[in-house]
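Ligand: F0G. Inputs:
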Amino acid sequence: MTDSHGPFIQRCIEPNCRTTFELDERIYMCPRCSGLLDVEPVGPVNIDASSVRTKWRTRLSSADARDRSGVWRFRELLPLNADVEIVTLIEGNTPLYEAPRSAAYCGVDALQLKHQGLNPTGSFKDTGMTVAITQAKSLRSTLAVCASTGNTAASLAAYAARANMPCAILVPAGQVSLAKLAQALDYGASVLEVEGNFDACMQLMLELADEETIYLVNSINPFRIEGQKTVATELAEQLAWKVPDHVFVPGGNLGNSSALGKGFRELLSCGLIDRLPRITVVQAEGAAPFARFFAEQSLAGSQSVGFVNEEEPATLASAIKIGAPVSWKKAWRSVLESQGQVISVTEQEIADAKAVIGRDGVGCEPASATTVAGIKKLVTNGFVKHDQHVVAILTGHVLKDTDYVINYHNQTLRSTTDIRSNFRNKPLHVSSSRQSLKETLARVRDESGYL
Ligand code: F0G
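Predicted complex:
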């Protein structure tokens, strides 16, 4: 059997609508009911698990850009028009690390970190952007735009540059880390700083959705989700197709948790895996409308509860400072079908978890550390057992927000309350003499905690 699929369509996710649209219709929401859209194959996907696994492995030694990309290597699961030239920066292919210090911190026997922050622009956004900008090119778009807390902006800027396509990014003025802003400027994006928070930027974007002349590449765009879902395949492959018991992922606008769920769902339906991992989404306490929704829904049982946005989201993890997540319905699907949870963690918990991940030699940006903080919390309440297989998805590189790191280790990190630097590693000042340096180094060796 050859591994193939027929054409793809876009389909409204609302159960009472389910209207379908052609793949080349430039829409982001259902024109009938404003529901979110999925990209899906028209007919059954004929994949022979064994042969496609071999094919994917063989591509690892190929020089073709489509094979070297950790997204397009799995193209049997992606909508790809044969004549379109893909726009790639050789994304994906990210490592899965053992993290013994983080495991001990959480109270589990072992913990693995899937580091999506090691993508070309330093965040998981690249896996989605390669597909969205490839689609933008296929639609002959002349301007790609997004609202962003910084990482989507950096990613769009890079991929648009590769595609030779102008792009504009809307960011909340003064609320984006300098490293992310620097990337967007360097890659040549037009940076529009908006008075207001991310939700205000996103709202403005949605109001422009009807404009024929622009292409919107926020994660409401279902092609972004198609690319981001491949992390599930790459992870399953790295684990010899045995899925973990739990996967933890940070939640902001909720595109990534949506994509992870879709990825695993499709692997299961193709027979590439035999069960779903539980997907747990972790938000920062001050920007946690989805966690609140989950808690209220759990209490209400079969009664339905409305989703209430957080009007004034607040967290030092600026990537996920989001109060009105556009993709919550898709993320809800991921959590429900996998029997996961949605929780929130405090600023203190995020800061300490981030420092511990650093001590594993891995490092990540603050938003990513919600995962390890969340695992610790759910080990304590018994949802995660110490001997279960747990994977945390790290979403951004440690150098994305160096101010946060320096402030933590200098004990100057402040949110509404002061944050204690429980894993502080402050710089030591040494006078410039051989003896002083020798003594300091001896102290470093004795007190390091590594021996
Ligand atoms: N982690 C990082 C590092 C992020 O940049 C984001 C989102 C998330 C987690 C949350 O992912 O939104 O799919 O739930 N950043 C977006 C941006 C909003 O504009 O860069 P999500």
